[in-house]
UniProtKB/TrEMBL annotation:
Superkingdom per UniProt: Eukaryota
Keyword Transferase attached: no
GO CC list: extracellular region
Recorded GO MF terms: copper ion binding; hydroquinone:oxygen oxidoreductase activity
Subcellular location: Secreted
Protein name: laccase
Keyword Hydrolase: no
SUPFAM superfamilies: Cupredoxins (SSF49503)
Length: 522
């Protein structure tokens, strides 16, 4: 088995990006090596799953319209963690390339067979007209909780917000937030994070001197900060002492500028905001209060440092203040083509569905059914001869949708373990009713691909148009909850899959290889 289909391009792994100096930047074409290694991002050493030798891994970049060709090379070789893998490119629509979307059992081109150790798989997909802040992560069980995740940025040379900032580079502008566990994910049930990492660095209570991430800025300069919650569970209340943030992008969608002093961000979500370095030269705390995990900021936990050039190398002495400009999701307005599809009235769509979520006996159900990945992925079932959508498995978890229809999905909150961030593959959607609100906004609702469904009394409602034939996962992005069955699949235009989705020949080799592996090596 050849490790690399792009050996001539492997040099790109060591070349600095033209936009900055972030280590290991690749894309839109290159080799992506998945391996295991010992890391201690918070001062506690453990084995992790690494993307190009990094936790919260290498940055992948491209430009609007690029075709990405990422050759995932699996060098995992320690059964303390999962040794097979499958990568999802979160936020990319994958029009015509649903086979490259990643989730085993749904649309992974390998007939539910992930990439085994010692093998490789070439993901090819067109970014088309998408640009913004995306990310990648393992979509095999809870593997990304062991570190296999990272940012994917698609730059727009004609960014409509370009006049609002001076700097958008790979070294300064990317900020990842993640929860971290001292025990490998496959050995855990519903765990509590041991530490919170910012750009892959953090502290835990028994090691208060570990280095923290530092974001360096120059006084008088405006920065586009791309913030991603790449964690498995925690939501964060994010702030930077003494600084305001002007949100300009939500989950890869440009929005009307909206200035706040605090942002709540759930697992899988992304925000770009403009940060003006307009304070006195000094050090300022960056704070990420987790919804679960170690509370507070004692000894620098849940924190990073904003350091102005010219400031001493020291920890900040700034003090947190009460928010007066807290972000409200209902105030976020898309910059282009605002307005939900369908008629601006209740039920003014072609298809309306209500999803009831329940937790019982250690599993989640959606409308009474726990999602169990099928032996043959949904996509391959139909490509291999299933006659119609009603034949698709798993029974009760497949929701057929016609093409070119307007769809409304209502998702009442309150199920244990929330707030639950629901992510829809293959689309963005308009959130016509947000958590914490009783108002239905059809005129200009926030447009995104992950939404918090809130608590008891909430009825978060989204709309989208079925313009992307394929099987698309809708699931909770708390990975432990997905593992416990919190998911369904929308089978969108299944009569068109054979004519619009054409997997590459390489997928044909993955399943025999996977099936030949002993269970302890998977």
């Amino acid at each position: 088995m050849a490790f690399s289909l792009f050996s001539l391009l492997v040099l790109t792994l060591s070349l600095p990006s033209s936009r900055g100096q972030r280590q290991g930047t690749i894309g839109p074409v290159g080799d992506f090596v998945v391996s295991d290694g010992l890391v201690s991002p918070d001062g506690f050493e453990r084995l992790a799953a690494l993307a190009n030798s990094r936790i919260d891994g290498s940055l992948i970049t491209g430009h609007k319209g690029d075709v990405f060709k990422i050759n995932v090379v699996n060098q995992l070789n320690n059964n303390t963690i999962l040794q097979s893998t499958s990568i999802h490119w979160h936020g990319l629509f994958q029009k015509g390339t649903g086979w490259a979307d990643g989730p085993p059992g749904v649309n992974q081109a390998s007939k539910q067979c992930p990439i085994v150790k010692g093998d490789s798989f070439l993901y090819t997909f067109d970014s088309a007209d998408q640009a913004g802040t995306f990310w990648y992560h393992s979509h095999l069980s809870t593997q990304y909780c062991d570190g296999l995740r990272g940012p994917l940025i698609i730059y727009d040379p004609n960014d409509p917000h370009a006049d609002l900032y001076d700097v958008d580079d790979d070294s300064t502008s990317i900020l990842t937030l993640s929860d971290w566990y001292h025990t490998p994910a496959k050995q855990l049930g519903f765990p509590t994070p041991d530490a919170i990492l910012i750009n892959g660095m953090g502290r835990w209570n028994l090691n208060p001197t570990q280095d923290l991430a530092v974001v360096s800025v120059t006084n008088g300069t405006r920065y586009r900060i791309r913030m991603l919650n790449v964690g498995c569970d925690a939501a964060y209340t994010f702030s930077i002492d003494n600084h305001l943030m002007t949100i300009i992008e939500v989950d890869g969608v440009n929005h009307v500028p909206y200035t706040v002093d605090e942002i709540q961000i759930f697992a899988g979500q992304r925000y770009s905001f403009v940060l003006k370095a307009d304070q006195d030269i000094g050090n300022y705390w960056i704070r990420a209060v987790p919804s679960v995990g170690p509370p507070g900021f004692d000894n620098g936990i849940n924190s990073a440092i904003l350091r102005y050039n010219g400031a001493p190398v020291a920890e900040p002495s700034t003090v947190a203040t009460t928010s007066v400009l807290t972000m409200n999701e209902t105030e976020l307005v898309p910059l282009e083509n605002p307005g939900a599809p369908g008629s601006p009235v209740a039920g003014g769509v072609d298809v309306a569905k209500n999803l009831a979520f329940v937790f019982s006996a250690g599993a989640f159900t959606v409308n009474g059914v726990t999602f169990v990945p099928p032996t043959t992925p949904v996509l391959l079932q139909l490509l291999s001869g299933a006659q119609n959508a009603n034949d698709l498995l798993p029974e009760g978890s497949i929701y057929p949708l016609p093409l070119n229809a307007t769809v409304e999905i209502s998702m009442p909150g309150g199920v244990i373990g929330g707030g639950h961030p629901l992510h829809l593959h293959g689309h963005t959607f308009d959130v016509i009713r947000s958590a914490g609100s009783t108002v239905y906004n059809y005129k200009n609702p926030v447009r995104r691909d992950v939404v918090n469904i809130g608590t008891t009394g909430d009825n978060v409602t989204i709309r989208f148009t079925t313009d992307n034939a394929g099987p698309w996962f809708l699931h909770c992005h708390i990975d432990w909850h997905l593992q416990a069955g919190f998911a369904i699949v929308f089978a969108e235009g299944p009569d068109k899959w054979n004519s619009t989705i054409d997997p590459t020949d390489q997928w044909d080799n993955l399943c025999p290889t996977y099936n030949a592996e002993p269970p302890e090596d998977l």
